[in-house]
């Protein structure tokens, strides 16, 4: 098996999109397809199922992914061991949208100044599949809110806390209240960003004083969409304060004073316990510890 083909396979397995894979690898989509077919022919198995525009790993593909990542890590380890430029390489991370937009730019700037030869690839982070992605080697690191350790094979480093705030449009009925409680919120529509709401449990505990936990009226794919919908008057939401700080300051959103607040959520960096930490990855983790939660 060619390492080039394995690298293409691992990239496609993480993105599940031929076009995006080609862009990441600076290769034509036809080249990506050719490399995947070469692997499938050599192994005499189907690695992906093509369902219309969707691509999903087969059982054989899932098995190969574990070995392919190990083989590429060994290659990177060998290069780092014999190269004069041991700090070159690639880092793949999964980051919630609000962290990516509001905290990661400072980290990347500091990292680029320190190690300009390392490349960083950022993937969207959905809290529910993070541990499995780390096990499969889809990502090197993952950043999450409100992590509850449950897997012995996942290492977690606490990086700090972010304040959670409830916000609504300035003309929302709750915007004029001095204090807002769970019963008040239940009377109105709730919006949540599915891509960013691993801290949702904190809000649910706050609302548990009522008999029933409300289901979100709208659950959208991104924080920016949730903010736009709240500004349009479609409901209220809870987000890390950093994600709505500018909107509140500009008067576009109103911060709701929650009874029992303020509320906080922890920010954690996760990696698999058996993951080989390349020099590039170790340096990136050190920069994250120093810069991610810096105001």
TrEMBL record:
Signal peptide range: none
Entry annotated with the keyword Transcription regulation: yes
Pfam family, one: LysR_substrate
Domain HTH lysR-type intervals: 1-58
One Gene Ontology molecular-function label: DNA-binding transcription factor activity
Keyword entries, A-Z: DNA-binding, Transcription, Transcription regulation
Source species, domain of life: Bacteria
PANTHER family: HTH-TYPE TRANSCRIPTIONAL REGULATOR, LYSR-FAMILY TRANSCRIPTIONAL REGULATOR
Family: Belongs to the LysR transcriptional regulatory family.
Protein's UniProt name: Transcriptional regulator, LysR family
Species per Swiss-Prot/TrEMBL record: uncultured Desulfovibrio sp
Phylogenetic placement of the source organism: Bacteria, Pseudomonadati, Thermodesulfobacteriota, Desulfovibrionia, Desulfovibrionales
């Amino acid at each position: 098996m060619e390492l080039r083909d394995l690298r293409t396979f691992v990239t496609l397995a993480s993105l599940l999109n031929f076009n995006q894979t080609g862009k990441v690898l600076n290769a034509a989509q036809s080249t990506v397809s050719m490399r995947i077919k070469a692997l499938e022919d050599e192994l005499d198995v189907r690695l992906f199922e093509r369902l219309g525009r969707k691509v999903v790993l087969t059982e054989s593909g899932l098995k190969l992914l574990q070995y392919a990542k190990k083989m590429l890590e060994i290659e990177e380890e060998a290069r780092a061991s014999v190269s004069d430029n041991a700090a070159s390489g690639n880092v793949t991370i999964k980051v919630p949208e609000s962290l990516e937009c509001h905290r990661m730019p400072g980290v990347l700037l500091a990292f680029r100044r320190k190690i300009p030869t390392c490349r960083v690839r950022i993937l969207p982070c959905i809290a529910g599949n993070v541990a499995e992605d780390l096990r499969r080697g889809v990502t090197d690191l993952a950043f999450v809110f409100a992590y509850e350790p449950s897997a012995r094979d996942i290492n977690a480093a606490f990086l700090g806390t972010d304040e959670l705030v409830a916000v609504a449009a300035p003309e929302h009925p709750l915007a004029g209240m001095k204090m807002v409680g769970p019963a008040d919120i239940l009377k109105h529509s709730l919006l949540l960003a599915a891509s960013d709401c691993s801290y949702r449990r904190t809000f649910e505990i706050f609302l548990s004083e009522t008999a029933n936990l409300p289901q979100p009226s709208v659950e959208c794919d991104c924080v920016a969409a949730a903010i736009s919908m709240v500004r349009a008057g479609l409901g209220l939401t809870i987000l890390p304060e950093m994600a709505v700080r500018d909107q509140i300051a500009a008067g576009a959103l109103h911060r709701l004073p929650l009874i029992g607040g303020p509320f906080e959520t922890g920010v954690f960096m996760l990696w698999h316990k058996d993951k080989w930490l390349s020099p590039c990855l170790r340096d990136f983790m050190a920069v994250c510890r120093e810069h991610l939660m810096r105001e």
